[in-house]
Amino acid sequence: MKFSIFVAYKPFAMKKLFLSAIVLMAVISCKQQPAGPQVVAHRGYWDIEGSAQNSLEALRQAGEHGFYGSEFDVNLTSDDVLVVNHDFTFHDILIAENTYEAIKDSTLANGEVIPTLDSYLDLFCEYPDLQLVFELKSEGDSAYEARAIPLLIEKLEQRNLIERTDFISFSLTACQEMARRIPAMMVEYLGGEIAPAELKEMGINGIDYHYTVFEKHPEWVEEAHSLGMICNAWTVNKEEQITEMLDMGVDFITTNAPELAEQLIAGRSAK
Description:
alpha/beta; TIM Barrel; two-stranded antiparallel sheet; 11 helices; 18% strand
């Protein structure tokens, strides 16, 4: 009844509300369905002189080259320090079972020490046009994830980076928990064995699968898009693979060859 009276006596206000709703829907739509394929530098832009996988320099190079996003991997030490590293081990030290002190002075291939998430995010804030693609390394250990997830959310919220972060993981439970805690965040599952519709029912709004999964299930791209989900293909490094994924219509190409991917996308746009 209140809604009917509002429409009858305040048409201008109703029009403003309607237009605001359209704008909000457009913002959400843009977040979920970016215009055209975008390039994500896998572990940062590391295949360049002076850089290394998951290093601060790799993040800096991704920002300087203007790629859409930079993917990186995060582990949690036994004393609850989040560090940026792909493997569960660093120089043969199992990160989850050791303190930060045990690894903090070990170096990457370019001579940098292993970055903490804090140092990584602080540098990221210098590149406002760059998107973070944040992978939590987890083997589905619920106790580990219960410690890591609130901590990583706190780090992102401290820097107002929630809207600039996509969360990915091979852990289905971690993806479900992130989607539950922050429904507006883009959350993408990496496993490759679950169809988009099933993930959508779990509250997960994206699939981030190896390109060979899409080769086996090309219908999943259309299925995901019909459900308002996004598709990211990894790690797509060769020209023929990139072209194949672009032909399928994936939204993101995660690659160790981001400049090549951008050149191929630009070439298609120019035709």
